[in-house]
Amino acid sequence: MPQSIEYQKMMTEIVYINLPGPSHPIDGMTGGELLHGFLADLYTAPSADIKSFVMGLCNKWNVRYVEGGAVASHDIGKKK
């Protein structure tokens, strides 16, 4: 009889989304810039239910929002 294998994925990478993001899409934006604006807009959802859902997804996928602009690469390890 085969023995079951226990597997636990330990995610160590965290994605930081700097706020504020682009306020609206413009011609020539890269896919990353469009995604940045989209994710920043989700963070500002007016509904508490939507915001709770978004934050639940962020926890699942190791995504963090950072207020006040860019995160320097040497500061990433300091974020909680």
The radius of gyration over CA amounts to: 17 Å
Unreliable parts:
73-80
Quaternary form: single chain
What is the string of SSEs from the N terminus onward? EHHE
Shape: elongated
N-to-C span: 44 Å
Number of H- or I-type helical stretches: 2
E-strand count: 2
Main sheet properties = 2 strands, parallel
What percentage of residues falls in helices of 4 or more residues?
Answer: 25-40%
Instruction: Give the overall average pLDDT.
Output: 80
- The secondary structure category is alpha+beta
Order of strands across the main sheet: 1-2
Strand content: 5-15%
Task: Provide structural commentary.
The chain is α+β, with helices and mostly antiparallel strands. The protein has a two-stranded parallel ribbon. The protein has helices spanning 31-43, 48-61, and strands at residues 15-19, 63-67. It has a domain at 15-69. Mean pLDDT is 80; it is low at 73-80.
Offer a concise description of the structure:
By secondary structure, this protein is α+β, with helices and mostly antiparallel strands.
List the helices and strands and how they pair.
Blueprint: E1 15-19, H1 31-43, H2 48-61, E2 63-67
Parallel strand pairs: 1-2
